[in-house]
Amino acid sequence: MELPDFPPVVLYSVPLFILLMVLERVSYRFHPDADEVGYGGKDTATSLSMGLGSLGWDVLWGLGTAAATSAIYLLTPLRIDFHWWALPLFLIAQDLCYYWSHRGHHMIRLLWASHVVHHSSQTFNLSTALRQSWTGFTGFLFYLPLAAVGVNPAVTAFCGGINLVYQFWIHTERIDKMWRPYEFVFNTPSHHRVHHASQGGYLDRNFGGILIIWDRMFGSFAPEIERPVYGLTTNITTYNPLRVAYHEYAAIFRDLRTRRVRQWLPTLLRGPGWSPTAGTTPSTVAATAVSRAMPVE
After folding, report:
1. CA–CA separation, 30 vs 233, rounded Å?
2. Fewest beta carbons less than 10 Å away: which of 58, 74, 134, 197?
3. Which keywords belong to this entry (predicted)?
4. pTM score, two decimals?
5. Which residue has the higher pLDDT, 139 or 246?
6. Is 166 in contact with 129 (CB distance < 8 Å)?
7. Do the Cβ atoms of 128 and 173 come closer than 8 Å?
8. CA-to-CA distance for 124 and 146, rounded, in angstroms?
9. What values do phi and psi take at 51, rounded to 5?
10. What's the burial of 13, exposed, middle or buried (CB within 10 Å: 0-12/13-18/19+)?
């Protein structure tokens, strides 16, 4: 079956992203909330820089990942044809793979080195959604099962774009908890604020993209109870996009230099807080680390 020409949903959504960020920024001026972090000049500029940079890098990494995924698709004799009426089913399947990809990027240090970029801001607003990795070359591994059962990689990519656009609006403090049935099924700003928080009880929770039911099913859900403190358990004190993009890779390299060869593999593949003496700790570097405050302008 010939596939339709899927629209580039992320590219088409950029004007909407800009409009919503402007409206959110204006809302803080007319309806300030002392408890909400809001926008910081340098922090926002860093997030926007990371987003722009990720566009170019995604094209580069996409060539290799598309080739690998297409190879699996071409090798399998299975085929699941795409029909517009079945789009919700493809979205659910892609979202399930996204859940495990997202969870894996918190639990495996080598993957966390890429994903930590998205958690490095101590603010939480719509610009935070654009703070994306420049090294997203491993996420495709979690979508290979879809290609193996015959889902065309172009369909998975289209659903991934919809997933990414959906997640933009949940990066805000301006929306409180929503209608209870919606909160039970779908990812919302309240659920995602928990995901970006650095408190111990909130660490490594709420990995869902569009749906939050995966977290409820697989034991990683946490409701928003106390106000989140955003960022990492040990925050980086820089707005330099290069350092934001690669600081965890540098930390991995430093650890490998000081550890024995037999400890290299667990250093890369265990949790981000793992050490030969301390074992595994939660993903944001170390649960007992003291966060260093970085002022917001």
Report:
1. 32
2. 74
3. Lipid metabolism, Membrane, Oxidoreductase, Transmembrane, Transmembrane helix
4. 0.90
5. 246
6. no
7. no
8. 33
9. -65, -45
10. middle
**Joined tokens for residue 22:** 């402007």
Half-sphere exposure of 107 (CA within 13 A, CB side): 10
Q: Whose structure tokens read 């977290």?
A: 215
Q: Give CA–CA dist 215/229, Å, rounded.
A: 21
Q: What is the pLDDT of residue 31?
A: 86
CA 38 to each of CA 27, 33, 47, 150, 228: distance values in angstroms, whole numbers, following the listed order: 10, 9, 14, 44, 13
pLDDT tens readout for residues 79-89:
999 999 999 99
Q: Which of 108, 130, 123 is nearest to 248 (CA)?
A: 108
pLDDT digits (tens, 9 = 90+) for 227-242: 999 999 999 989 999 9
Q: Count the alpha carbons within 13 Å of 113 in the hemisphere toward its beta carbon.
A: 18
Q: Which of 177, 202, 173 is nearest to 187 (CA)?
A: 177
Instruction: Report the C-alpha gap between 154 and 293 in whole angstroms.
Output: 43
Place of tokens 């926008």: 39
Task: Tell me the one-letter amino acid at 104.
Answer: G
Question: Residue 25's CB: how many other CB atoms inside 10 A?
Answer: 15
Q: b/e map of 264-291 (b: 16 or more CB within 10 Å)? A: eebbbebbbbbbeeeeebbbbbbeebeb
